[in-house]
Automatic annotation (TrEMBL):
<keyword id="KW-0812">Transmembrane</keyword>
<keyword id="KW-1003">Cell membrane</keyword>
<dbReference type="GO" id="GO:0005886">
    <property type="term" value="C:plasma membrane"/>
</dbReference>
<protein>
    <submittedName>
        <fullName>Transglycosylase</fullName>
    </submittedName>
</protein>
<comment type="similarity">
    <text>Belongs to the UPF0410 family.</text>
</comment>
<feature type="transmembrane region" description="Helical">
    <location>
        <begin position="63"/>
        <end position="83"/>
    </location>
</feature>
<dbReference type="InterPro" id="IPR007341">
    <property type="entry name" value="Transgly_assoc"/>
</dbReference>
<feature type="transmembrane region" description="Helical">
    <location>
        <begin position="6"/>
        <end position="22"/>
    </location>
</feature>
<feature type="transmembrane region" description="Helical">
    <location>
        <begin position="29"/>
        <end position="51"/>
    </location>
</feature>
<keyword id="KW-1133">Transmembrane helix</keyword>
<dbReference type="Pfam" id="PF04226">
    <property type="entry name" value="Transgly_assoc"/>
</dbReference>
<keyword id="KW-0472">Membrane</keyword>
Amino acid sequence: MGLIVLLIVGGLIGWVASMIMRTDGQQGIFLNIVVGIVGAMLAGFLITPLIGGAPITSGVISIQSVVVSLLGAVVLLAIINLFRRGAVR
């Protein structure tokens, strides 16, 4: 059940990150959600425990982990945007 919640939250974070980066129309919602899930998972696994939060696999969803996951999704979307177009917006 935790994995399903993680995917849903990651998808929502990917959607919000795509609106922040203004890539929601040009890359397609599916790519934005997938990149958001991957970015959120990477940030949740790697960065959240380093700053004293619970890792995303612990089943605890906190504001700290959601913010870090959102930042990870935004960064990964910026990197994808850089490789696709040659410039970050």
